Task: structure prediction
Amino acid sequence: MLKFFVIGVLLVLGALTTLAAAIGGPGWWVLLAVLAALLLLGVYDVVQRKHSILRNYPILGHLRFLMEDIRPELQQYFIERNWDGRPFDRDTRSSIYQRAKNLKEEQPFGTERDVDAPGYEYLVHSTRPVDPADDPPRVLIGGKDCTKPYPMALMNVSAMSFGAISANAIRALNQGAAKGGFAHDTGEGGLSDYHRSGGDLVWEIGSGYFGARTKDGDFDPAKFQEVAADDQVKMTSLKLSQGAKPGIGGVLPGAKVTKEIADVRGVPQGEKCVSPSAHKVFSTPRELVLFMARMRELNGGKPAGFKLCLGSRVDFLAICKAMVAEGVTPDFVIVDGGEGGTGAAPLEYEDHIGTPLTEGLLNVHNCLVGVGLRDQVKVGASGKVASGIDIVKRLIQGADYTNSARSMMMAVGCIQAQTCHTNTCPVGVATQDPKRMRALNVPDKTERVFHYQQQCVQQALQVMGSMGVHGPDGLRPHMLRRRVDHDEVRSYAEMFHHLEPGQLLTEPPEGRWARDWAEADPDRFTV
Result:
């Protein structure tokens, strides 16, 4: 490891300098003092538990913090060249770190954003604000067939699998969720012992059915039922697609399938682990809906739902038609935005495939409203949710609650080095290397996850109060506005067509909604 190399070099240089000082002039003693100071600093960096990057990169890691102090000029230089963070701008990243550290984050001199540029969005505040709610509201998830509904927080940990992120990262996220009373989505990599740290779990099953699969890779009802019975599992979710790479599965090379990961996923150790592009448990919208009922039966009446990055609106309307025809609904639908995703994916998929979260939310929300089922199906939003403003905007756009992955990774120490797929994460978040993973101190990062979520939700409540409403129930589309041109601003009530409850079943509105509704078939997906 580099840290031992740095300390070793200092020790060797110190020994040589000591010899030179003994036979040379006083200048060598000055150099020896400098080397001794550096050695003490290096030892301190290795044993301290606050900064992960210093534990893995003693002395050298201070260059990163120096660069932060010189910002915004030098740091912005690297950001613009995609060095450490295309996903979030400087202000957003700074806000995440400040909240995770439980520090004040007010800043002077107003916004740095171009408020006159097309695409700029803002929330409308009230001339008569109200006090924020004393307690964060909960969203009760569970439809008519659910016997064990779950009260979901407004912001939760989104899906990140063990294997994609480290054991220590999983433990910190779950313990933070336990302390803050919010949910932790396992991701599709199975439910590991590291997830069992006290926090509420949403157990996600993907097309590989990891943790609930037969030797041939099919879904195993008995295994699913056994794991889902765990009291820590509060909901079960079927992943249809994800924002980072919708329409394709995943491959974990055999070299990375350690015994531990093989046991969690239920696959052979050392063999290539494939997550197929398509599911085996359903091939039509009707079969998907019926499988939701089967999942709910197997998990003992807990909420069952699915996650997707929206593709064709016709397909989701076909799923809605199947819900109506069968009298069966999922308890929740998680909408993942095409701009979301923490996992490595082909550039073409990251930039060009998948509906953005705003459009996906509005469509899913309106589809469910249009068939009269919105009150039975809760909607989660997942995709670059990083602040209280993001929470409020997603609630206005049709969500009931939000999930966050990228900013939660940053809360446990991620610096967006973009080496997730190489197993060389410098701060121990996205790696299975035990030496690198050691840098992530679980108790410290647990506190950061807790504080980050708590402050984001509190800020969301404060923003709602500034808008004149006491909670999510008071939010309306006209409260969110977008500059569409240099001389025109429109609200979300004006920009988008909002369906009335049951409207698609009685008289679909003329135009694209009517055409899509007519094309939707509960017994086939579009090609």
